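Re: the 336-residue chain
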Amino acid sequence: MKITPTEVTKHFASLYNGSNPQYFAGGHDWSDGTLFTMEIAGHSHVLKILPGGTEHSLDTVRERMSFSGYAAEHGVQTIKPLLSAKGKMVEQHSEESGEYLAVCWKYIPGKALENSDPRDSGEFYHAWGALLGKLHRLARKYPTWQESEAKDASGKALISRKAEYEVFYNWLQDTEVKAAWQKLAASLDVHPVRRNNYGFVHNDAHSGNILRNDSGLVLLDFDVANCLWFALDLAICINSEYARILHHSSHKDKAADMKRLFLEPFMQGYNSENSLAEDDLKSIGSFIHYRHFLMFAVFYNQIKENAPKYLEIMKGELLSGESYIRSQTEEFFGKL
């Protein structure tokens, strides 16, 4: 657990005129930050505190929160950043314990998906697809779409697919997997980049980042938002729901029927808001493979400690390019 010093939490709360901040969620080794709830003018708000140790972390957080705010202003039920008393979207603070950043927004009520049976989730799947489709439709008009405006001293974009490639290449600990990652990244780079298939995307819109309330679905956590293919954003959602059913639910016996139970309503919802060309849809299997590399990097130490045999299975799938989820996806969409 990553502990945010109490004095840091209180300092940031004061910058938003908030009172009595209480731990809410996050702060794990794999988390991007820690969430606290607090009262501002009688209303519940969320304060998110993130590490700010890199030279340009303020710029990347600001740019990602700007995109979240744009989505909120255009009808997506999501995070709309609250400006601090100083008029800042992102605040920063230094202590002996480190550098910190903070953002704040009004609390949005909702319930998580939890252990839902896919047979009873058709309405949710349709709404989830529509939510993602709407976000992609909005991204087609968002000024930033190929890479971030924020650059480092050499002029390299801080938010881009190239930056993501580099982060995960450095994160991967297995030499063979690193080589396979480079090969996959090179093969994806030939995929067309067009205004109607590429742009600022959430990049982690799995069901764990979605709540349900009376107004519909709520999309949370833009911490890894990036400029990428819309089909990759779709692949992340698809992979997450198959993984939930296969590994994190009591509904593994429904996996063989997920094309009908999940993919059909999900894509019907997506197509009600946005459409992709056939070559983009047929690339989703490759993007599922891409996502598996990222999961291998992020959870490598955790899986190695708790399920080393499964780690070897994951590695084998990465090197071969074959997996159950990819095969199911390509049966539905086709493949290039």
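The chain has two domains: 6-106, 118-333.
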